Amino acid sequence: MGNVDYGHGVRHGDIKPRAFFQARERFAQAKCRERTFQPFEIKYRGGHVASFDKLRSGRQSGGVSGCCGVKMKIIGLAGWSGAGKTTLIKRLLPCLVARGLSVSTVKHAHHRFDIDHPGKDSYAHREAGAKEVLIVSGERFALMHELRGEAEPDLKRLISLITPVDFVIVEGFKSAAYPKIEIHRAENGKEFLYPSDERILAVASDQPERIKERPSFDLGDVDTIADFVVAHAAPVSEVLESLSAD
Predict the structure, then answer these.
(1) pLDDT at res. 111
(2) 3.60.10.10, 3.30.1330.60, 3.40.50.300, 1.25.40.620: CATH of 35-112+153-245
């Protein structure tokens, strides 16, 4: 990692792990304050127009602090299985990151899943009865929490576990009360979700011309979808309030 200066006279190599993570967070916050936004408009299919901010570099007054947790925003991609939600996220993430945005994701799994494997020490810890196992390396860390009969955590609880970033994209949780883009593929033979969910703000489809009541995009038009995400993702405070009221 090198001898990085994290401010306040603290340099990597001089500090213990907990202090290191705290110093790194202060460093990230300082970098985040160097960002600023400039307004512009975009016209979507069907005549819908939105005004929003486009991230650009430079230190000016009024800079945002999304990665500091002040203006973290959330939007979801919802749709039937096989519609292409994960495929779109894989293309959408690089597009947003290239704009200088920090992005995290939440993924709902509808079946039993495991990121651990028999034979690994972390797996042995879980099998022996550990409630949580925190596994750490020089590249990443992962916290595995065993529910052991507890109820599955809801989206509000999961959002509270996310380290503050500019945007959080949620895949799934299509019935939850938060802003979403519907992902629809005609060959699935499934009906649209948006007529019965006012929280679906737009639809990305392989047949966007069929959508009249919402802004719509072709599934391949990733740049325009990214514009919409930046424009219409909701502040985390509003999403948590909506989830609490639902």
Answers:
(1) 65
(2) 3.40.50.300
